[in-house]
DNA sequence: CTGGGGTCCT
DNA sequence: AGGACCC
């Protein structure tokens, strides 16, 4: 077969639907507060209106606008706080379940953005006129797509994608209908033969509508997007790089020779963007599995006291352990995130993270079935002291804590797999107990904050003799476990103090010293020899079920069947 | 005081 | 551990 004919036949083999929930947070809040349904509504996080309903958008309110600005545009704007994502997470899971009724091939970006590869269900419809597994029947006689179509559709592509896309538009309509019937949430959809086109075309008609694009209109769609920054994957940095090279539009991108572009932005990105500029995108829909991390963050004006850090981390950890229990898997590592106030310039304020293994005995699987919050907090504080030099004044604008590696809850028996998996998870994580073994010397004298500063705030009178002798403080967490676990008060002394304090934080602070966090026995070293000593087929069995850290390199063979360019 | 989440790559 | 990206 001539390679050109071959190209023509196999060109657009996939069918992709992109489902975007309309102003997701705002819809959820309207469901929770029906009286707000008919009013302009914004969802607020800190000083930001992160999203708003369409009534509010008529006033010109945009995503991530400041509250001030939004209220100027619409003084009667109703605002609800959306800093707690619990309800959104809940609805997001329900939406995902509905999508899974259609196909397991669902890739999620965030809570409200989904790609579905419906190639195979479209094929089922073409074979039989219905899908016995779904309760949907599609009128195959009707050749018209549901919803809008972008661009001309005069000539049918010889690969047959035309009718596939039309069927997919009916499936998309059915998906949206089921989401609305079950949840009273509206979505918009884009239908195309790849992810890029499905996503971009769905933006054209937005609340509660859907749009289809045929391949012949792909280049046209890309031409109509004004800036390269609208291409998914082109963020702020790349946009700056491109603009400094006078590349602003997709057409600029097309005019730039690949070789020249590679030198400016790197070979991988250059190739991707040259493809994208023509509407080409071979990336596959990667089904989203379990989360790779579960985290919580809290931003604030400024936190400069260790005591307040401890209080806030404690609150975050309580919620985080609840989320982990819902998830069902056992976390194996903890990561702390800190954002330090950046007052040298108006720089963005980078985050710093520290990560460590989570010792097994802090986990709920061991006897009690619950987390030991005191020790979790001690561990988090240890990470904090690795991140922030508390001998000097500090002020933070964000604290976050996350679980980052997981072990499936064993369901009992698969001992060897479970054992090895745990080892591999722990192995790559820094073992913080093994270095600076006794550590916590800083913890002994936290009042040294401000010791040479003149800002006269809280602590300057202090330097209260903290001296619990470091030596006696230095029992390990393991020792604590062996001793008895002190019943955790509803409020810790720290929280009581914090909630009661007004202006004169005095030497009460001496009592707020973090309980001696100390080296923990962590992470037995992995024994690669154990694995290697197994029969090869057992090795394979074991490694196949490991949490995926390596990814299949995306050398899609289809690439070689794409019309040259 | 640009939010509170996430992903993957280097 | 950080960076860039997504929503």
In short:
This is UmuC domain-containing protein. The chain has helices at 3-9, 24-32, 54-57, 67-73, 86-100, 119-128, 161-183, 195-202, 218-224, 236-244, 250-255, 258-265, 267-277, 306-327, 373-387, 415-427, 441-444, 470-473, 477-482, 493-500, 528-532, 536-544, and strands at 16-21, 41-45, 48-52, 65-66, 78-81, 106-109, 113-117, 148-150, 187-192, 210-213, 294-303, 330-340, 351-357, 396-407.
- At CATH level 3, the topology of the largest domain is Dna Ligase, domain 1
The number of strands is 14
State mean pLDDT (0 to 100 scale). 77
Shape: globular
Output the CATH homologous superfamily of the largest domain. Answer: DNA polymerase, Y-family, little finger domain
Helix content: 25-40%
Distance between the termini: 20 Å
Q: Oligomeric form of this entry?
A: single chain
CATH classification, class level of the largest domain: Alpha Beta
Our estimate of the beta-strand percent is: 5-15%
Sheet of most strands: 6 strands, mixed
Arrangement of strands in the largest sheet: 6-7-1-9-10-8
The count of domains is 3
